[in-house]
Amino acid sequence: MLRRLLHSVASDDARETMVREQIAARGIRDPRVIEALREVPRHLFIPEPERPRAYDDGPVSIGQGQTISQPYIVALMTELLRPQPGDRVLEIGTGSGYQAAVLARLVSHVYTIELEETLASNAAALLRELKYENITGRTGDGYAGWPEHAPFDIVIVTAAPEQIPQPLIEQLQPGGRLIVPVGPRFTVQQLQLIEKDAAGAIRSRDIAPVMFVPLRRP
Length: 218
Ligand code: SAH
Description:
alpha/beta; two-stranded antiparallel sheet; binds S-adenosyl-L-homocysteine
């Protein structure tokens, strides 16, 4: 009991340091985004053997050959998406569930799709335990989006396709934002922010070079 309490105090400290040194110091400004990063217990989303690295300044392995993104990249993508309290979000690549949890604090509902059964069910169990009631997940290929719940105000892809899947652009609401790392496998990709204006026109902006695991087709 005492050990658990001490552990959770240590994690809170590590998380404060993460937010100060990796997030705020590098220019993330949206106070709601900073608050969400401060509140979500990132270490719980990381399997035991890797947990000591939970607040490191880099991606961490979550099993099945997959990774949870670097905290700064999670914050940057979240801020660029300009999440609003009423927004409905689609995420492709649930992984640990961490990015979904961060977004769920900022929007009305997050729909998230994960190809790997084990990761999907672990994330679902943890999110349930942490009492997130505005996240709906399913196992499967996210390439075609989730038409039953479309359109979305925000689409976030956390694995890299070689080209942007057309269905994801189609399922974006006018005024909607899509963020996706685009490029070849296992090398540098370009993080792109796509915006659909009120008339349905698409504008795309290159944000930064990044490295994500590939979006796989089953
Ligand atoms: N957002 C995650 C990190 C995801 S890593 C987090 O916060 O932890 C990328 C994830 O995308 C991996 O779990 C991988 O299994 C998943 N993935 C890869 N291809 C996919 C596809 N076609 N559909 C859905 N998920 C996919």
